Amino acid sequence: TTQAPLLKVERMVTGYGDLRVVRDVSFEVRAGRLTVLLGRNGAGKTTTLRAVSGLNKLAGGSITFDGEPIDKRSVADRVRMGMSYVQEGKRVLHAQTIEENLLLGGRIRKVRRAVLHEEIERIYSLFPILKEKRSLPAGSMSGGQQQMLAIGSALMAKPRLLLLDEPSGGLAPVVVKEVMQRVAELKETGIGIVLVEQAVEASVAIADDVVVVDMGRNVLAGPAASVDLEDLKRAYFGAP
Ligand code: ATP
């Protein structure tokens, strides 16, 4: 399409203090599309998301959101601009109900409770299981359901861009498929998604674009439809 990218990361360099763990990473995401970042443990995927969200500072390269350079913007500014980040292993509040968790997710918006309740209804239509269990403590749900609640809470901020770090973490394969299916459906709401995953097949299946990162560098990038799964697994994940 001719539509400008929502997020554009160019030749990003970042890390922790003087330690550079991301040395040359580039990718884009358009509205209603999903880009998956794959790579071994320690490749620099989480650090890439942290830098996009503003938690890590850039040592080189650039990040633009909606055409505007944002690498000097604070985390809070980026949230206000429409970015929402679900960190790896993000926990929901176990003792609070599902609905209370969702309300907390919307807290950063200075809007009336009635508006938040409209938003909650929209999230219930995306994740019907959350509606069914709305009055139960979040800790009573399964891991997959809690992951959906974590995503739902992030959506309460009404983001245009969702950064998702390993939503499949610790889930059984059949549950991973279901979470991925729900994530794929989110694209239809028009938001752009950056997904970091270890579950290669399940995530490539819902992706529009695939980026493989190794040692903090792009080693493969292209449309998901053009990526050969077997090649990808052999080259980067040590499959036989
Ligand atoms: P994983 O799937 O294991 O999270 P990843 O691709 O997301 O892997 P990162 O978490 O970005 O990788 O880590 C990249 C490198 O940065 C690793 O070598 C890691 O040890 C290092 N690292 C991560 N967090 C810190 C930190 N807070 N301080 C210093 N080094 C860190």
From TrEMBL:
Domain of life: Bacteria
Keyword list, A-Z: Amino-acid transport, ATP-binding, Nucleotide-binding, Transport
This protein's name: ABC transporter ATP-binding protein
Similarity remark: Belongs to the ABC transporter superfamily.
A single MF term (Gene Ontology): ATP binding
InterPro entries in the cross-refs: AAA+_ATPase, ABC_transporter-like_ATP-bd, ABC_transporter-like_CS, BCAA_Transport_ATP-bd_LivF, P-loop_NTPase
Domain ABC transporter, residue spans: 7-240
Gene3D superfamilies: P-loop containing nucleotide triphosphate hydrolases (3.40.50.300)
Species this chain originates from: Arthrobacter sunyaminii
Biological process according to GO: L-amino acid transport
Any matching Pfam family: ABC_tran
